[in-house]
Design brief:
Strand order of the largest sheet of chain B: 2-1-3-4-5-6
Number of helices of chain B: 6
Number of helices of chain A: 10
Distance between the termini of chain B: 50 Å
Oligomer: heterodimer
Largest sheet of chain B: 6 strands, parallel
CATH topology of the largest domain in chain A: Rossmann fold
Strand content of chain B: 15-25%
Order of helices and strands of chain A: EHEHEHEEHEHEHHHHH
Largest interface: A-B, 28 and 26 residues
C-alpha cells in the first residue's frame, strides 16, 4: 500500500482566540487533515454536523455555546467523533468536567507541541490522553471517589469502620465490642454516618456500604 | 516526555503573540483553589498581561510553570496540598520565575516572612488586588518588592 494515499486524520479546530487558532492551525496542518477552524460553539456544532471529522479539538470557554455543552451535543449526535479538549486550565475540576461531557483527551495549552499531536493521534485510534499536568491529581480524585462511593460522602476512618461492621450484620453492641468503644459511642457514630449519607434507615446504610465496596455483595 | 528541538526549548502549543502591541504582554500563570477567584484575577490582569495557564493547586502550579516558563506568577496562599508559598518558594529556588506575587486573604506576619525569606518579592491582600495587583506584578517583573496597602500597614517600621 502506498503510504502517501493513507487517509490522514480529519480534524476540526475550535478556539476563540485568533492568534492561538492561527498557531494551532499551522501545527495541525503538518500532521492532520485540518478541515475547518471555528471560533464559537455554534459554529463548532455546525462544522461537526456538516463535515463529520474524526477528531474535534476544542477549547472550553467560547462565545455563543461553551465548549463543554458543544462536546455534549456532538457526542449525542455523532458518538463516533472523538474529542480533544485544549485549554489553559491545568486543573482537575475542569478535566473531570471535560471527560464527563464526553471528551477523550485533555491537553493543557502550555504543553509542548508534541503533546498536542500525540493526544490527537491517541484519541483518533480510540485511546484516551490526559495531560501530565493534571494526571496526578486526577488519579487522586479517582481513588477518593472509589472510597467515598457515588454520593461522594466524606466519612472518617472510624465511621467507615463502624459502617463496615454494621453492613456485616453486627449489632451496635457487637460493633462497640469489636472497636472497643462504648455502645453509646457506636450509636452516635451510626447516627452521624446516617446524617452524612442522608439516609434514615439501616438498610440504606448497608446498601451504601456495598456500593462503596466496604463489603462484598 | 517532551522532545526538545535543537535550541533546547520545547515549542509551546500556545505561541506568544507579537503582532498587536509594540511590546508583548508579560506571560503569567495564575493559581487559586477557587475557580471563580481564578477567573476574577484573570479578567483583572488581562489584557495588560497574557494569562497562559490556570492552576488550582501548588503542585499543578509548579508543573504549569515548568511547562509555560512564564514571566510572572500570581498565586493564592491558602491552597490544599502544596500551598502557594511552598510552590512559590520552589519556583524561585529553582530559578523558574523570579516575579512571584502571593495573593492572600489574610495578613499573616508568619506567612509573609516565610514568603520573603524564600525570595518571593510580592505580597498582596485580596482586598487590595483590584487596585494593587497590576502595580505589584509590574514591580516584581522589574526586580523590585511590592507589598499592598493592607500588608504595609502591618509591617514593622
Amino acid at each position: 500500500m502506498n503510504p502517501s494515499r493513507m487517509a490522514r486524520t480529519r480534524v476540526v479546530l475550535a478556539d476563540d482566540h485568533a492568534v492561538v487558532a492561527q498557531g494551532l492551525s499551522e501545527l495541525l496542518k503538518d500532521s492532520f487533515d485540518l478541515l475547518e477552524v471555528v471560533h464559537d460553539g455554534h459554529a463548532l456544532l455546525d462544522a461537526a454536523d456538516r463535515l463529520r471529522p474524526d477528531v474535534v479539538v476544542t477549547d472550553i470557554s467560547m462565545p455563543l455555546l461553551n465548549g463543554l455543552e458543544a462536546i455534549r451535543q456532538i457526542r449525542a449526535r455523532h458518538p463516533e467523533i472523538k474529542i480533544v479538549v485544549l485549554t489553559m486550565h491545568a486543573d482537575t475540576q475542569t478535566a473531570v468536567s471535560a471527560f464527563r461531557a464526553g471528551a477523550q483527551g485533555y491537553v493543557v495549552k502550555v504543553s509542548p507541541e508534541q503533546e498536542f499531536t500525540e493526544a490527537i493521534e491517541q484519541v483518533a485510534q480510540g485511546r484516551a490522553y490526559i495531560s501530565p499536568l493534571v494526571a496526578k491529581e486526577l488519579i487522586d480524585v479517582l481513588l477518593e471517589a472509589g472510597n467515598a462511593g457515588p454520593e461522594r460522602a466524606r466519612l472518617t476512618v472510624r465511621q467507615r469502620e463502624v459502617l463496615q461492621l454494621i453492613a456485616e450484620g453486627k449489632t451496635m453492641k457487637e460493633v462497640a465490642s469489636v472497636l472497643k468503644i462504648s455502645p453509646r459511642t457506636a450509636e452516635s457514630h451510626k447516627y452521624e454516618i446516617m446524617q452524612v449519607l442522608g439516609v434514615d434507615n439501616t438498610a440504606a446504610l448497608v446498601q451504601y456500604a456495598v456500593r462503596a465496596g466496604l463489603v462484598g455483595d | 516526555m517532551a522532545m526538545r528541538d535543537v535550541t533546547g526549548e520545547p515549542p509551546a502549543v500556545l505561541a506568544q503573540s507579537s503582532e498587536d502591541a509594540p511590546r508583548p504582554a508579560p506571560r503569567v500563570v495564575l493559581a487559586d483553589d477557587h475557580p471563580e477567584l481564578l477567573a476574577e484575577t484573570q479578567s483583572l490582569l488581562e489584557p495588560d498581561f497574557e494569562v497562559v495557564c490556570l492552576a488550582t493547586g501548588g503542585a499543578a502550579l509548579l508543573r504549569a510553570v515548568l511547562e509555560a516558563k512564564p514571566d510572572g506568577v500570581v498565586s493564592d496562599v491558602q491552597m490544599p496540598g502544596v500551598n502557594g508559598i511552598e510552590a512559590g518558594s520552589e519556583i524561585v529556588r529553582q530559578g523558574l520565575c523570579g516575579a512571584v506575587v502571593m495573593l492572600s486573604m489574610y495578613n499573616d506576619p508568619q506567612l509573609l516572612s516565610t514568603a520573603l525569606e524564600a525570595g518571593i518579592r510580592g505580597y498582596v491582600l485580596k482586598e487590595d488586588a483590584g487596585e494593587e495587583l497590576i502595580p505589584a506584578l509590574r514591580a516584581v517583573l522589574a526586580g523590585n518588592k511590592y507589598f499592598s496597602r493592607g500588608v504595609r500597614s502591618a509591617l514593622p517600621d
